[in-house]
Amino acid sequence: MTDSGQAKEGGPKLGAAAFLATLGPVGRLPAPGTWGSLVGIPWALLVWGGSLGPGIPWVLLSGSLAAGVLLCGMAEKSLGRRDPGEVIFDEFAAIPLCFIGLPTLTEGVPSWFVLLAGFSLFRVLDILKPAGIRRLQDLPGGWGVMADDVAAALATCALLHAGRLVIGAAG
To answer: DSSP string spanning 55-90?
Structure first.
């Protein structure tokens, strides 16, 4: 990398990747992971809102996760630290995974409740990193930044659906 922040051979500026990976100024707020997750809620609603057509939500989700691996890896290099706290694209991109099957999750339950429960569970699992989730951070580069959030989001999704089954069985 050159002194100007350019990658060799005229590649992308790593400063721009860090800006995107921190969601601009949002990553510099107190509790940045919480803010990244909160900013990701509208993204989750767009992905799973039901008006995009079949398959499109998965394309959007896959694209944002792939972009996260790339951006977060570049931001690590740009900022010179492993999984910097201000890099929050991982939370932003992963939180829609919490809400796979959103129409089923909200059936007979207020949408705001499901969103709040998913957001809260995701934050707890992302912070505590139970059941081996922490070990995923050992993966190299952007893979390690993203993998623990993806695992926390999928665990959140499983817990939400289990809760939905319990509510359905009780009703």
So the answer is: THHHHHHHHHHHHHHHHHHHHHHHHTSSS-TT--HH
Q: What's the pLDDT band for 108 if we cut at 50, 70, 90?
A: confident
pLDDT bin (cut points 50, 70, 90) of residue 6 is: very low
Whole-prediction pTM value? Answer: 0.89
Helices 141-170 and 56-79, packing angle to 10 deg: 140
In terms of Cα–Cα distance, which of 109, 110, 146, 114 is closest to 44?
A: 114
Query: For residue 147, what are its two tokens?
Result: 């993998």
Task: Specify burial of residue 163 (Cβ count, 10 A radius: 0-12, 13-18, 19+).
Answer: middle
Could you tell me which residues are beta bridge partners of residue 69? Answer: none
User: What amino acid occupies position 134?
Assistant: R
User: Residue 155 in contact with residue 125, Cβ under 8 Å?
Assistant: yes
| Distance (Å, whole) CA 20 – CA 170 | 44
Each residue's pLDDT tens digit, 125-162: 999 999 899 999 999 999 999 999 999 999 999 999 99
- Residue pair 5/14 in contact by the 8 Å Cβ criterion: yes
